[in-house]
Structure formats: C-alpha cells, structure tokens
Design goal:
9-stranded antiparallel sheet, two-stranded antiparallel ribbon, 11 strands, 15% helix, disordered N terminus
C-alpha cells in the first residue's frame, strides 16, 4: 500500500482524490490474478470478459457506474450482456491516507467497498466476497 502524498494546504481528505473518471484496468487486474490468485482457466476467461470495461465517474457526493454492452461467442453462438449504468451516493464510513471504506447498496445488497490507492491515479477494489463475486480478486482502476 502507498500513502498518498499531500501538499501542506491540502486537508488530507483522500476522498477528494476520487473525483474524476476511472476505468477498470484489465492489465493490472490480470497481473494480480497471475501472481496472487488460484483461479481456473474458466474463471479467468469469465473475468476477462467483464473486467477492463466498466467506468466509474465520481463527484463530491455520488458515483456513476457504467458497463457497456458486451458481445461474445459461447458454444458457437453470439451472446450479449446488456450494458447498464447506475448512480449511488457516496457513503464514506472511514478513511486512512490510502484507503476509503464506503457503504454500497449496489445490486440491492448492503456491503462495504474498500477502495485502496496504489497511487493518486490507480486504486483497486476487492471483489472477493461481494454480491457479484466470490473469487477473491482485486479489480484495478486507472484515472482517465
């Protein structure tokens, strides 16, 4: 983990660093998977299909999550996963110099998202035990 350096004038509110648009980074996520995860080839193929595509746009009070439509071939047939977008308020439970804990109500479940900054332009979310996955993977995001 990296501590984000701040100017003396900055109030050290790491949440302010979130403001902007971020995109899922499949290359960084895959590097993590290769080194630290024991996933099946099928799991990795599924993750590659989904990761590296979503964007998150944060402002001071909310986040907009957007996933584009995904087309792929399975069993010789073209399949389509519909794109989606939703907005939720940012509900910060706590923060350190490198992490932000947020209460999320995505996908109709309450769970805590822990955003961990590698540097000012890269963070990861633990996609381990959540309503959408139980694979114990970090999904990396880069500022765009």
């Amino acid at each position: 983990m990296t501590t984000i350096p701040f100017d003396d004038e900055h109030d050290k509110d790491i949440v302010a660093n979130l403001v902007g648009t971020w995109k899922s980074n499949w290359q960084l996520t895959k590097q993590h998977i290769d080194v630290e995860c024991k996933l099946t080839e099928e799991n990795i193929i599924g993750l590659e299909l989904l990761m590296g595509k979503m964007t998150i746009r944060y402002n001071e009070t909310s986040a907009v999550f957007t996933m584009p439509e995904i087309r792929f071939i399975k069993d010789g047939k073209e399949r389509v996963l519909e794109g989606w977008s939703f907005e939720e308020n940012i509900n910060v439970l706590g923060q350190t110099n490198s992490q932000i804990a947020c209460l999320s109500k995505a996908f109709s479940f309450d769970f805590i998202n822990l955003i961990t900054f590698e540097n000012a332009d890269t963070f990861w979310l633990y996609v381990g035990h959540s309503p959408i996955s139980d694979l114990h993977v970090r999904e990396y995001f880069s500022r765009i």
